[in-house]
Each structure stands twice: as C-alpha cells, then as structure tokens.
From TrEMBL:
InterPro entries noted in UniProt: DUF4123
Record's protein name: DUF4123 domain-containing protein
Domain of life: Bacteria
Ranges for domain DUF4123: 48-169
Length: 344
C-alpha cells in the first residue's frame, strides 16, 4: 500500500483491484475483492455507501432488489418528488449483496442493473454513527444556498467528483473539515472510492491536524470556492473528452510526435487552450472543441486574430459554433494541402 501524508488528509491507495465476475458455480463466493476484505470487515466501524440515483439508469429497478436500510438525503417535503434523482445513503453491513454488486463487473452488451463496478458509482464511508445520524449530517450538503440566497442542488455523490473534491480540499482545511466533522465530534472516519478505470481503491482519512480547523469551518453555502470546484471538474472532464476525440476521430491529422505520445502533455495543452478559448468569448462546448482541435493541429494555441480571420465577431452560440468549425476546416485543409505538396 502506498501512503501519502498531507497536512489534513492521509490518502492511501490499494492497487490492482480487479472487479468480481458473476462467480457462477463458485462454492465460496467473494463478497469483495480479496485485498479489500480487511477494510470491509472492520467491527468497530459501520460501513455505508452514497449513491446518486441520477447516475444510474433503472435505479429504482435496482432499488427493488436491495434488501437493506437506506435514507434519501432530502427533506420530507420534497423527498417523494425528487427521489428518482436524489442521493441515497445505504447501510452496507446489513447487505452483503449490495456490497458485492458494487464490485461486480458486467459481461457482454446487456448488463444486469446490479453490475455496478464498471459504472463507477458509490462513495464508501466508515463511521461510528448510525444511519439516521449520518443522513442528518449529509442532508445539509444536498441543498446549499448560493451568494444570491438561492437554493442549489449539489451533486456531490458522483464518485469521481468526490475524489476530485477531496484532493482539491487538501489545501483548504476550513472546507475539508466540514466533510468529516460536525459540532464537537468526528462524524466520518474515512471515505473511499473504487476507480474502475485505474483499478485503484483510494481512501481519504482525516488527520489529527484537520480537527483543529473544525471551529474555523466556512459557512456552508455554495460560494465561489464550490463554484470553482465544479467549474474545474467540468473542465477536467471536457479536456479528457477532447483527448479521446482528437486521438480517435482526428487521428489522421493529429501529429502525436509533438507531444512525445504523452497524454499528460496533450491534456495540459488542451487545458490551456480551453482556458484561452473562454477568455476569447467562446461559451459553447462545441465551439471550444473546434478551437482546441484546431490549436492542437497547428501546434500552438490560436488567438483572436485567428478567430477574426474566419469572421468571428460575436459570442452568440450558433455564430461561434459555425465560425470555429470553419476555422477547424481551414486548418485541416491546410494540413491536407501540405501533405499533397510533400507527396504523402
């Protein structure tokens, strides 16, 4: 196990965690992958999982199969109306079946609704407290007021976002402490995420230093910090998507040698180009995608003169989509022309 010490959180990672298969015909079936048995068999702590219903198709078909106690993290007045997109808190010590499903990988095209490992759902957590006490603790995160005093639904239970959020909060203990501590008591011992793509099981545990920030916790509102978190995560997903699009859909125009085959270098370039595209007034994801692809193929981040060359003059979505597409087409045509000139 690899352990990284940080001022407010200890982050440990177990590697090479292969998901379970259907285990047909196996006499002694595993509940979880062998290397995680010690984590999930602790007697002192209760183990739970947060699941965002909106992240799963046919969630309520799955819910009907689950035989365990759970709480919907919404107030009673709106619970019924929003239960199909709400965040749920499940008690895992009372349902080995659900725990196994969270680590079971589907087979073939038609995957049963209970094969959840490859869908990257669920934020695991351990605590000394009971289900109802933890539900009360988490409900305050579900709906936050913003600076304009309007309610915002905060979809924190997406496992990849939650991991990103805690990593970002390592340097912001006034925010981080809220996810572990309530008034005068530690509610959460640790959070864990199973990353199916990387086969990592990451655990975030509060250090003693984090407790010192409990009295200094920031007011729980959807402020600029939380908005910034959401924006950076959205940009991260967009950048990852653009790497795939460029390497797959535009492979004939993409010169990987410029980035030494290094995804990180390409990703960093895309992040920079995305930032510049926003500064230049491109608002739609489609327009920024065209701009980024053109920049990658040219080998530099384009600028406002490049946009002006195709008649970009406003940020109306339809206009910016059309003009940035024209810019990309010009770049591709130039690549084709150079290729013909050199006899390729």
């Amino acid at each position: 196990m690899e352990l990284q010490s940080v001022p407010t959180l200890d982050v440990s990672s177990k590697t090479d965690i292969e998901p379970l298969d259907f285990q047909y015909g196996v006499k002694d079936k595993l509940t979880v992958p062998v290397s995680l048995e010690s984590y999930f068999s602790q007697q002192r702590l209760n183990t739970y999982v947060l699941i965002d219903a909106a992240s799963l198709e046919r969630f309520h078909d799955l819910l009907s199969l689950i035989d365990t106690e759970y709480e919907i993290l919404l107030g009673d007045s709106i619970k019924e109306d929003y239960k199909s997109v709400a965040t749920y808190l499940f008690d895992l010590k009372r349902s080995k079946e659900l725990l196994t499903w969270l680590f079971t990988e589907g087979e073939g095209d038609k995957k049963p609704s209970w094969c959840l490992a490859d869908r990257s759902v669920g934020v695991f957590l351990q605590s000394e407290f009971e289900l109802d006490e933890l539900a009360y603790f988490f409900k305050k995160f579900t709906r936050l007021r913003d600076k304009q005093d309007k309610w915002r639904y905060f979809r924190f239970a997406d496992s990849k976002f939650f991991s990103f959020m805690l990593e970002e909060m390592m340097g912001e203990p006034e925010y981080c402490s809220r996810w572990f501590y309530s008034t005068n008591k530690q509610m959460i011992e640790n959070y864990s995420i199973y990353e199916y793509d990387t086969r990592l099981f990451k655990t975030f545990k509060a250090t003693s230093k984090l407790q010192a920030y409990q009295p200094k916790q920031k007011p729980l509102i959807f402020d600029d910090y939380y908005q910034g978190l959401s924006d950076r995560y959205t940009d991260k997903l967009f950048s990852q998507k653009m790497v795939g699009i460029i390497k797959d859909d535009f492979s004939q125009y993409y010169d990987g040698d410029n980035y030494d085959g290094n995804n990180k270098e390409l990703t960093d370039f895309i992040v920079k180009s995305n930032h510049i595209s926003r500064q230049l007034g491109l608002k739609s994801e489609q327009a920024r995608g065209y701009f980024i692809a053109a920049s990658v193929f040219v080998g530099r981040t384009l600028d406002k003169e490049d946009l002006a060359s195709v008649g970009f003059y406003a940020s109306a979505m339809e206009h910016e989509n059309r003009k940035t597409k024209k810019l990309l087409e010009q770049v591709i045509n130039n690549i084709k022309r150079r290729s013909l000139e050199h006899g390729h």
